[in-house]
Write a structure and sequence with these properties.
about 170 residues; eight-stranded mixed β-sheet; two-stranded antiparallel ribbon; 3 helices; globular
Length: about 170
Amino acid sequence: MPHNKTIIQPSGSRNGRHCLLDLYGCPQQQLDSIESLDRVLRNAAEAAGAHVLGVVSHRFEPQGISLVYLLAESHLSIHTWPEHHSATLDIYTCGESCNPSDACHYIIQHMQPAQYFLTEVQRGAPASPAHMRLNSVSCYDTIPSAPQAGGEPLSAQAVNAWPTHWR
């Protein structure tokens, strides 16, 4: 299964870990079932060592779902596009007691995408804009574009991984 992974780390202290996961080529039925997604995401949170406090869901018409989980450690969310066989996820956990990367790997294993793109950001408490740097990762990575109609192969595009604006 083709995939890319980027890790962005702050040079100072760490407050938490933030994973962004894009899935492509997932089964359409799974992406449009709140029950199926809820089962996978609750188990993924448990696999990461996180504790679900609550969940909010919304079904879009004619298709698509958003689920947002409030975790004792922070949050987990998914947004699906069944018509494109794709989903995006955002998993952030504070502290050292859980690992959002474990949740991502659980989700990948159980949703079986044809391709995925995982970015993990180490979140810190910066003293200056210089706190954010890429460690052992090139400035550019590739991510798959949206699947094409009729199951055409996915293409890739270059993405600049550097922050563009600092306050």
